[in-house]
């Protein structure tokens, strides 16, 4: 009988779309980073907070957060899923604006980020951090 390798389970949390979601996502990320021995979780917490806040404000339904280490380079990857069809975009710089700067800031702090549609509807926004 052949032995098949099981893929490691990806740490995941499902959050209700409430004002508590960003805080719970930050705590979830901090716990994963601590388990992996990553001491500086500042950028990761900022990224997950921005992505979850965007999902809360502009998405639909529950918010799913997954955090895992890329098998190729060992860097942390943060994914935030929601049921909304809209795609996040970086707003042009506007010093008078009271919002809309989060993705611009985040994009300057991460190695890469993007959005992909989900087959069942909605999207996943992901970002890869440096260690």
Tags for this entry?
single chain, 131 residues, alpha+beta, Heat Shock Protein 90, five-stranded antiparallel beta sheet, 5 strands
Describe this structure in words.
The protein has 131 residues and is α+β, with helices and mostly antiparallel strands. The chain has a single domain (12-128), classed as Heat Shock Protein 90, CATH 3.30.565. 31% of the residues lie in helices and 23% in strands. The protein is built from 3 helices and 5 strands. It has helices at residues 21-35, 42-58, 102-109, and strands at residues 12-15, 63-69, 76-82, 112-117, 123-128. It has a 5-stranded antiparallel β-sheet with strand order 1-2-3-5-4, covered by helices on one side. Strand 4 and strand 5 (123-128) form a beta hairpin. The longest helix has 17 residues, at 42-58.
């Amino acid at each position: 009988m052949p032995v098949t390798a099981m893929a490691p389970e990806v740490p995941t949390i499902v959050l209700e779309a409430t004002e508590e979601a960003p805080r719970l996502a930050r705590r979830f990320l901090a716990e994963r980073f601590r388990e992996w021995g990553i001491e500086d979780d500042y950028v990761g917490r900022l990224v997950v907070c921005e992505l979850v806040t965007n999902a809360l404000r502009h998405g639909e339904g529950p918010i799913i957060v997954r955090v895992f280490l890329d098998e190729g380079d060992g860097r942390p990857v943060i994914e935030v899923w929601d049921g909304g069809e809209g795609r996040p975009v970086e707003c042009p710089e506007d010093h008078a604006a009271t919002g809309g700067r989060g993705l611009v800031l985040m994009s300057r702090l991460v190695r890469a980020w993007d959005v992909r549609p989900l087959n069942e509807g909605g999207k996943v926004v992901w970002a890869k951090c440096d260690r």
